[in-house]
Amino acid sequence: MLRNADYWIRQLNLAKHIEGGSFRETYRSSLNVNPEAIGDQFVGPRSISTSIYFLLEQGQFSAFHKIKSDETWHFYDGDALDIFEIDNHGMLIVHRLGREPESGQSFQIVIRAGNWFGSRVAGKGSFSLVGCTVAPGFDFSDFQLANRADLLQLYPQHESIIEELTY
């Protein structure tokens, strides 16, 4: 049986994601933590942790965005995924999530809270099936989708990738 993107979208019941690609939340901790314990950048309590499946196909991208929590990415199937992170000093870090450590790929990477990041399938790959774990847990009020013009003004040295991974 061919396990392509369509197979995984059906089997995992994935839906379209606002930043691009397809996803489904798989876990949301019933344990919550109050902002006093995790920082005043959060408004209201947060689940301790959340997890999703996330799938990108060739030609799709996850648009640059940032969240207020650390996010760990996990590789599951398909082709390698390039994740582009711009830290708070303007440095561009390129992570390659995949199954070939001898080629510089990692099964897991972490994007630090507050950093801009976006992703796409590496090279001419067909699709990437990954997972994302966020702690403190994801809440859409902590999510900010990048505005292309604003990001270009902040980081003109990264014009090419910003134009590619923004709407």
Task: Give the secondary structure arrangement, pairings included.
Blueprint: H1 5-11, E1 15-16, E2 22-28, E3 32-33, H2 35-38, E4 46-47, E5 50-57, E6 61-66, E7 70-78, E8 81-86, E9 92-97, E10 108-111, E11 116-121, E12 127-135, E13 144-145, H3 148-154, H4 159-164
Antiparallel strand pairs: 1-2, 2-5, 3-4, 5-12, 6-11, 6-13, 7-10, 7-12, 8-9, 8-11
Molecular structure report:
The chain is globular. Helices cover 14% and strands 41% of the residues. It has helices at residues 5-11, 35-38, 148-154, 159-164, and strands spanning 15-16, 22-28, 32-33, 46-47, 50-57, 61-66, 70-78, 81-86, 92-97, 108-111, 116-121, 127-135, 144-145. The strands form 3 sheets. A 6-stranded antiparallel β-sheet has the order 1-2-5-12-7-10, covered by helices on one side. The chain has a 5-stranded antiparallel β-sheet with strand order 9-8-11-6-13, with no helix packed on it. By secondary structure, it is mostly beta strands.
